[in-house]
Amino acid sequence: MLQNIRVVLVNTSHPGNIGGAARAMKNMGLSRLVLVQPQEFPAADASARASGADDVLSGALVVDSLEEALVGCSLAIGTSARDRSLPWPMLDPRECGAKSVERATMGDEIALVFGREHAGLTNDELQRCHFHVHIPSNPDFSSLNLAAAVQVLGYEVRMAWLAAQGEPSINDKADAVELATLDEMERFYDHLEKTLVDIAFLDPDKPKHLMARLRRLYGRSSVERTEMSILRGILTETQKVARGESHKRKD
Ligand code: SAH
Fold first, then answer.
1. CATH code: domain of residue 213
2. How far apart (Å, rounded) are the C-alpha atoms in residues 133 and 162?
3. How far is the CA of 90 from the centre of ligand 1 (A)?
4. Where does a domain end: 141, 164, 187?
5. Where is the tRNA/rRNA methyltransferase SpoU type domain (predicted)?
6. What pLDDT does residue 208 have?
7. In this structure, which residue's CA is closest to atom 15 in ligand 1?
8. 81 DSSP 8-state letter
9. I want to staple 28 with a disulfide (CB 3.0 to 4.6 A). Which of 16, 158, 159, 185 is the partner?
10. Contact present, 152 and 102 (Cβ < 8 Å)
11. Are 34 and 82 members of one domain?
């Protein structure tokens, strides 16, 4: 079940931190590491800091974009060391552990997304996540070392996992709904944006926060696969009407 939870490190500069994160993960029983454009990897410093978690490092998937790192996931939780401009659904680390384990038990793929040492995650990257998690640190000195942040959230995942051991697991796949994955959601947002431009609801020169707000809205709706097909169908028909191509209405 813990293998459904992946740790995503975005654009890490120090390979030592990648090794430290791998060690923290293995200590907590996590094994799936995804690196988005690491500045230096593989690297001797990474192996040195991993001290024994080389299997996590050698199994790490290196990708070019956050979008690729999130393929197949239906829940992404982004970490943030500080407040951001657009308020987003927040979890504390304990809730992050509980939610990750609950959803992983249901067979969903989960991503915990960590940012750059110097600049964290961009707003655009954070807006790809359903929830944000902040480790309640000293407000005057709030940034943890990257590997330390992985350790804290990994520990909370482990505690939630241990607590769930005695409980009956949700095995009834018949009742389980299949949620749209993040890559499917990305294609939907792309389609939605184009449609909103087509019907002149969105001005590409003055987009304001419209797409971010819509991401936040759909992100908290747990959109199911079948619902996603309906939404995509509505967009396709809307675009046809906007182009004057719709033949569906005869009246
Ligand atoms: N200067 C950056 C801090 C980056 S710290 C900023 O202001 O955003 C590097 C990474 O460690 C962060 O992107 C995040 O993934 C994690 N991290 C550090 N401190 C954290 C905290 N208090 N809560 C959650 N994540 C934290």
1. 1.10.8.590
2. 21
3. 15
4. 164
5. 5-155
6. 87
7. 114
8. S
9. 158
10. no
11. yes
